[in-house]
Amino acid sequence: MAAGLGAAVGMEREFGSQPAGLRTHMLVALGAALFTLAGVGPAHTDPTRVAAQVVTGIGFLGGGAIFKEGVNVRGLTTAASLWVTAAIGLAVGLRAWEAAVLTTVLALSVLWLVKQAEHLYLPLRRNLMVTVTIKHGSRLDVVERQVLDALPRARVLRIAYAEHEQLIELAAQPAKSVSLPQLAEELRLLPDVEGVDLTR
């Protein structure tokens, strides 16, 4: 049962191409359930102590799913889903079947339904990474001003000089009505801009 409930959460993460997917969530739930069963076995170990150790251990595993991508931090939701999956496994080990199933349903609702609601009703929170390649010898301050005019909600992260090119890297939150190809073309048409790279 623990493996099945963990698989339900893991499938949602798998469809989202997250670093921890189906097998990871199944193993987390299965391991948590087994630790709990061992804690209430013949040795009469206190199951709450076992649960505390599982929670601590899953923190290290969840930390491995979190990584920094530019100015964005990815994997927080997957780390949280691993934590919840461990709790589901603990509940199964304690034979709290209804709590385990209900938590799985609620977790899937948060991961999928709330995600859809975020896309529809909440403003875009993740930054768009913008790298603008500038013709060598151009005035960076002028080009920077033009780029910031095109991206009002942006901030410059780095300005790099190379032998044959100059780069400006920015973190931006463009309007939802503007598609990435439109934005790239708008920036590309700015004077002295040679190339544009956009990364979500």
UniProtKB/TrEMBL annotation:
Lineage, highest ranks first: Bacteria, Bacillati, Actinomycetota, Actinomycetes, Micromonosporales
Coiled coil: none
The MgtC/SapB/SrpB/YhiD N-terminal domain, residue ranges: 1-119
Parts of the chain that traverse the membrane: 20-38, 50-67, 87-114
Location of the protein in the cell: Cell membrane
Membrane topology designation: Multi-pass membrane protein
Protein name: MgtC/SapB family protein
Family note: Belongs to the MgtC/SapB family.
Keywords noted in UniProt: Cell membrane, Membrane, Transmembrane, Transmembrane helix
Species whose genome carries this gene: Planosporangium thailandense
